[in-house]
Design brief:
alpha+beta; S16 Ribosomal Protein, Chain: A; 34% helix; 28% strand; extended
């Protein structure tokens, strides 16, 4: 079976906390995981005045931060044995530099069934080509 790295939601209503877990792909979100490799708190927390003073009083210390804790060694292990991260976990791992960022594929208008959009794009290309010819000095 496929092993996935994904988020399991915990916490109170309107204040979620997620565990980054290793699970079989077909199990329920909140079922018992094979391993918990980290936590993610998506709600930004504003540091307390004592924490700001401990950091030297920088402006950077006053910015709200999201709490992400990850066992990097275990994450590398599970990626190495072929576990597939879900999209949110992929973005978190990309922030840590464990994997390359996942880019969204942009569909080319020719692949879409909306021919009106395709014709508009073709007209824009023709106009740009004429403008480019004038700019190069072909008079």
């Amino acid at each position: 079976m496929v092993v996935r790295l994904r988020l399991a939601r915990f916490g109170k209503r309107n204040s979620p906390v997620y565990n980054i877990v290793v699970m079989q792909a077909r199990t329920a979100r909140d079922s018992k995981p094979m391993e918990i490799i980290g936590t993610y708190d998506p709600i930004p927390k504003i540091p307390s005045p004592s924490e700001i003073a401990a950091d030297g009083g920088d402006d950077r210390a006053r910015k709200p931060i999201k709490d992400i804790r990850l066992d990097v060694a275990r994450a590398k292990y599970w990626l190495g044995v072929g576990a597939q991260p879900s999209d949110p976990v992929w973005r978190l791992f990309a922030m840590f530099g464990l994997i390359e960022p996942q880019w969204k594929v942009v569909r080319i208008p020719a692949q879409q069934e909306d021919k009106a959009l395709y014709e508009k794009v073709q007209k824009v290309k023709i106009i740009q080509d004429k403008a480019g010819a004038r700019a190069t000095g072909s008079s």
